[in-house]
Amino acid sequence: MTEYKTLKEFYPYYLSEHNLGISRSLHFIGTFLVILNLVAFIVSLNFKFILLSVFFGYFFAWLGHFVFEKNRPATFKYPIKSLASDFIMFWQMLTFELPFKGKLKE
Fold first, then answer.
1. Alpha-carbon gap, residue 24 to 6, rounded angstroms
2. Which CB contacts under 8 angstroms, 24+ apart, belong to 19-22?
3. 101 falls within a domain
4. Which residue range is the domain that position 84 belongs to?
5. What is the pLDDT of residue 2?
6. Per 3-state DSSP, what percentage of the chain is helix, strand, and coil (rounded to 5)?
7. pLDDT at 1 (0 to 100)
8. Is residue 52 within a helix (H) or strand (E), and if so which, with residue range?
9. What is the tally of structural domains in the chain?
10. Which of 8, 19, 23, 32 has the smallest number of CB atoms closer than 10 Å to its CB?
11. What mean pLDDT comes out for the span 62-84?
């Protein structure tokens, strides 16, 4: 596996691991729920929302990887770059810069 030193180098690889529209959509849902739970934590100071953020973030992402993409999440090797990339991908999908529907793998 290539060693990615910068987020700029890593992000194209990250996108290639989210090739299917269902995987991107699941990541989008998970990240949206993470953000909602973090806001709920800030408002309530109830730590259960932190735990829910972690659960939703990983559940939807890993569902996309293990069930649909059939690949290993990059978060195991690049946890910080993967987290940052997830928010970048979320923003790009939210602003329609990146389509929800990816290309199908061959």
1. 22
2. 19/69, 19/102, 19/103, 19/104, 19/105, 20/64, 20/68, 20/69, 20/102, 20/104, 20/105, 21/99, 21/100, 21/101, 21/102, 22/64, 22/68
3. no
4. 8-94
5. 80
6. 70, 0, 30
7. 62
8. helix 48-63
9. 1
10. 8
11. 93
